[in-house]
Amino acid sequence: MRTFFCVIALSLLCSCAPGLERTLLVSQIPTSDSSSQYLRGRLTVGVFTDARQKEVIGHFNGKNLSPEGDVPASVALAFERELKARHAELVAFDAPLLEGEVRDWFVDVTPSFPVNRIKARAKVRIRLLQKGKVPLFHGEYEGNVTYEHPLVSQGDIERILTEAMSFAIQEALEDSRFESALFNGQS
């Protein structure tokens, strides 16, 4: 009977992330359900850069996990989608410019028995510039997510990773200082 429980425990431990790839998809950052929050004003989403200290995006059981997709482009696109969901008017020119940098984005998967833990963190710094030069606003925002479950999959890890960035983006766009700067920057 003891051998049976050891076999079950080992199989659960080994199956915490069956078929885990060494890459994690970063382009599927979810938008919030904040369609009732309106952001007044026009703006352009510009370039986002990757200022992370590590090239890897995660760690699982001694293995480094790399991002599948362009990290800063994925974050810029997520900002665009979130701004559209909040009814902001995105234009190509003649409006304040939103730029940013990804300061941190990482997921750590800790296999354990009886539950596995996924911890993700994201940090983004944004700047709102008038005519691409004059600073209107800057801020840094974080998102953190922890998930525990006996079995985790590749999809669970990617979901937790992207939710952390989604929360950082939501925090940025819900900052009343950002909203004021956007409104005051309209010409």
Overview of this structure, please?
- By secondary structure, the protein is an alpha/beta fold.
- The chain has one domain (32-184): Lipoprotein like domain (Double Stranded RNA Binding Domain).
- Helices cover 30% and strands 36% of the residues.
- The chain has 4 helices and 8 strands.
- The chain has helices spanning 2-14, 71-85, 154-173, 176-184; strands at residues 23-25, 42-50, 58-60, 63-68, 89-90, 97-110, 116-130, 134-149.
- Strands 1, 2, 3, 4, 5, 6, 7 and 8 form an 8-stranded mixed sheet that branches.
- A hairpin with a 3-residue loop joins β7 (116-130) and β8.
- α2 crosses α3.
Elements, N to C (H/E): HEEEEHEEEEHH
What class, by secondary structure content? Answer: alpha/beta
Record field, number of beta strands: 8
Helix content: 25-40%
By DSSP (H or I, 4+ residues per run), the number of helices equals 4
Main sheet properties: 8 strands, mixed
State the end-to-end CA separation.
76 Å
Oligomeric form of this entry? single chain
CATH topology: Double Stranded RNA Binding Domain
Instruction: Kindly report the name of the CATH homologous superfamily.
Output: Lipoprotein like domain
Sum up the overall morphology in one term.
elongated
